[in-house]
Every structure is written in C-alpha cells, then in structure tokens.
From TrEMBL:
Start and end residues of each CobQ/CobB/MinD/ParA nucleotide binding domain: 5-45
Pfam families: CbiA (PF01656)
Coiled-coil annotated residue ranges, if any: none
Protein name, per record: CobQ/CobB/MinD/ParA nucleotide binding domain-containing protein
Length: 53
C-alpha cells in the first residue's frame, strides 16, 4: 500500500487542486481513500461529490 500526503502551511497555494488531480489519477489504478481535514469541504466540491453528515 502506498501513502501520499499533500501538505502546505499557507492557504491558497493549490493543495485542494493538486489533491483532487492526484485522487482522480490514482483512482484509475485502484481504490483511493481521501481524507479532507479542512472544514470548508472544498475537496468535495472539486471532486463533484456530495457532502454527507
């Protein structure tokens, strides 16, 4: 199993965009678990996924 982590300290540097692109790419090769610790849920929006409670 491979683990990929995207981290940056400053806001607005492209973490969500890079994460969404990596998720899309890696999901073509198999199952991907993506965890978004940001309460703004922008990753859900970038991937076109509904937010579940």
């Amino acid at each position: 199993m491979t683990t990929t982590i995207v981290v940056a300290g400053k806001g607005g540097v492209g973490k969500t965009a890079i994460s969404a692109l990596l998720i899309e790419l890696l999901s073509k090769k198999g199952v991907v678990l993506a965890i978004d610790a940001d309460p703004s849920t922008n990753l859900n929006d970038a991937l076109g996924l509904p937010l579940k409670d």
